[in-house]
Amino acid sequence: MSILTLRRKNIFRLGGILWLWLAALPPALAVKPMTSNSARKQVYQRAVEAASSDINRVAQQKNWRNFHSKLNVFIPAEVSSFRPCSRPLSVALPQGDRLDLARLRYDIRCEGNSSWELAVTVKPDIYLPVVVAKNTLERGSNVRAEDIELKKRNITSSRGGYLIDPDEAIGLTVKKRIRDMQVIAPSQLDSPLLVDRGQKVLMIAEQDGVEARMMGEALKKGRKGDMIKVRNLSSKIVVSAVVDQAGVVRMLYAPGQS
Question: Which CATH number does the domain 193-251 belong to among 1.10.760.10, 2.30.30.760, 2.20.25.10, 3.30.200.20?
Fold first, then answer.
């Protein structure tokens, strides 16, 4: 027998002994494979499904476009002691809770072979194109198209709300100074003044399909839709009227009534 043949047999024999030794290891020393269907994974997947569904529903209601979201899921540590559920997990908002996209809470329940329940929190980051100021907008100025633009921002951290359509801001008056690149909230804007106190205005009254027009004097400043008092310059009678457009008001009562 050649030396080479002998070496090959020894290697095979050694390999066989090594294989048998590994196979004889007690189960406690063997590495357990990570189950792909653990209770934690089931809970995580169900929470993501529920949060994604709620976000998409709100996005459709509010006509969001080109948005994306990242979900931060917080699962209690006790889930590690639960057995995987043999049935699909049920999910519901806690009793009395209202949907709040800044902090979504779900009660996730297993009703299978080993029943259990967990309260899970999902904090989404939702990025949506919203109206921001291109430059600093001073108080009292009117917003122009060149003053604003759309930028993606995390709306879950926007206080006071946001606007997704530039037309919702153009022409409105800035109530409080807005910094450049700051998200513009509806509460920061106001309708422009259309009528000033002491201003001569056109009074329009309509009754039984007949329209009458006369000149009056505004006794109070007003924005579109505001109700103000106006004095008829001819009769000197003071009536209530609603501001309709710049320098124009519509009377609530027929001419001659106060």
Answer: 2.30.30.760
